[in-house]
Each structure stands twice: as C-alpha cells, then as structure tokens.
Amino acid sequence: MPIQEGFHNQRLTVVPRRVVVEAISRPVTRRLMVTDTGYYPNAADHLMRRPSGIEETILILCTAGTGWANVGGTQHRVGAHTALVIPHGIPHAYGASADNPWTIWWCHLRGADLTELIEEIGAGASRPVVPIGRLDRAIALLDEIVTILERDHSPASLMGAAGVAWKLLTQIVVDRTMPVPGDPLQRAMAYLAERLDRTVRVADLAALVGVSPSHLSALFRRATGGGVLAHHTALRMAQARNLLDTTDATVAAIAREVGYPDPFYFSRHFKRMHEASPTEYRNRAKG
C-alpha cells in the first residue's frame, strides 16, 4: 500500500513479500515483475546503504538534480537524464547530492528475463549509469507503474505493471540505439529519407555529415543492424509498398518514384526482398 511519509509529495508502494513469492511462480510475472516503486521529488538527504545488495535489480531514473552511487566499491555521479541500474546482489549505496538533490522515479525488479534486458540496456555493476534518450517517455511509463501498484497488488495489477516495466526497459534500449537530433547518424538518416528517388554514395554521405565512411557504416550497423545502403534500400522499398497499397500508379511509375529507372530491375529487386513481384504484392489480401 502507498506510504505517506518521507519526501514532500512522494509516492511509494511496496508489494508484500508473500505476494511477490506467489507472483514469481505465475506464468507472466515470473519473467518480469515490479516489487517496489516510487517517486521522490527534490529528495534532500536521501541515502540508502545495502552492504550485501538485495534480491531485486534497482532502476532509478534521475529527472532533475544530481545524486551519487557507490556500486561494487566504485563511485559514480548520477545526473539528470540518466538511469542508475544496480543488478541484484551487488553491494551498493546511493543518495542525493547535498547542494542539488535529485528528483527520482524508481522501481525494483525481479524475473527470469531481467538479466537479458539489463544486458541489452548496456548496464551492469561496472557501468551502472546509462543515458536516457527520451526522459518524458520514461517518466510516463514509471508514473504508470506507480499508479497501477498504488491501486492494488492483485495478479492483474502485477501483470499490468510488468507489461509497462517491459516497455520501459525495451524503450531505454531503443532510445539508446537511435540517433540524437543533429548528430551525424540522424542527419544521414534524414538525408536518405528525403532522397528516395535516387541512389546515394556512402562516401558522399559521410563527407556531408563530417565522418569517415567506415565510421558512418559502423553507426548504421549499430542502430539498424545493416549498412548505409541497406537502410536506404529499406526506405525505398517501404515507400514502394506504400504506393502499391494506396495508389493505382503503374509499377514503372512507382519504380521511378523510388529511384529505379529500369522497372524490370526494380521488380526483380522487389521480388528478391518480398518473395513476390510488385503486382503479386499489390493483389495480396492484407489486414
């Protein structure tokens, strides 16, 4: 139940341990569940020490101010727009800075899938502080978790909170791989998206955004799983599918629209990617 003490306007709810034990044996919540969660605004003098760690993994989202953490014997600064992730069982201490106390949303997590999710975030005992790309989105998700568990700790609420926690963790992963506005990857992606009707040379694009071709290719592989040209081709094919689905334009006209002057080459390329010719794709039942 919510606890009405501590920091002014705080929110806090702790799932009873017997309920946690029951939930961790059920099909969905055994994979991921929230055991504790809350919101501490302007948390002056906030301090927590756990010399032996705890059973849960801790996620603390710092939205304003600063704090610190000692994880496994190493000191770290925690600033706004970052998350502190402390794996279960790791000795730790953390707290608000004296001159600019942090505001935090936080949750404790358990579950069989948690180790892989934390690995995908890129966090661990040696690197517990990770940047948050979309702070507003992360706040909204943690707010939803707190709201759900403030209501009750029924199996349905625990499952709902687990679903939002899954979204929160995967969103942190996605946001970390996507480009920051104005950086070379974002500018390169925007350039490609605006030029679907032509081919683009990697060397020219790299020079335009101010990095080497090899570095640009590495940025694209990290963000998309493929190279620069593979990403551009995917964008062009997505536009081709959209035109096939939403217009009655000829295949030749669509080919020109997405930068293929030869409609036969376009059709062969399209079929290689979609296992159907443009005409076959257009005639498929969808939805």
From TrEMBL:
<dbReference type="Pfam" id="PF02311">
    <property type="entry name" value="AraC_binding"/>
</dbReference>
<dbReference type="InterPro" id="IPR018062">
    <property type="entry name" value="HTH_AraC-typ_CS"/>
</dbReference>
<dbReference type="InterPro" id="IPR003313">
    <property type="entry name" value="AraC-bd"/>
</dbReference>
<dbReference type="GO" id="GO:0043565">
    <property type="term" value="F:sequence-specific DNA binding"/>
</dbReference>
<dbReference type="GO" id="GO:0003700">
    <property type="term" value="F:DNA-binding transcription factor activity"/>
</dbReference>
<dbReference type="InterPro" id="IPR009057">
    <property type="entry name" value="Homeodomain-like_sf"/>
</dbReference>
<keyword id="KW-0010">Activator</keyword>
<keyword id="KW-0804">Transcription</keyword>
<keyword id="KW-0238">DNA-binding</keyword>
<dbReference type="Pfam" id="PF12833">
    <property type="entry name" value="HTH_18"/>
</dbReference>
<dbReference type="InterPro" id="IPR037923">
    <property type="entry name" value="HTH-like"/>
</dbReference>
<dbReference type="InterPro" id="IPR018060">
    <property type="entry name" value="HTH_AraC"/>
</dbReference>
<feature type="domain" description="HTH araC/xylS-type">
    <location>
        <begin position="186"/>
        <end position="284"/>
    </location>
</feature>
<protein>
    <submittedName>
        <fullName>AraC family transcriptional regulator</fullName>
    </submittedName>
</protein>
<dbReference type="InterPro" id="IPR050204">
    <property type="entry name" value="AraC_XylS_family_regulators"/>
</dbReference>
<keyword id="KW-0805">Transcription regulation</keyword>
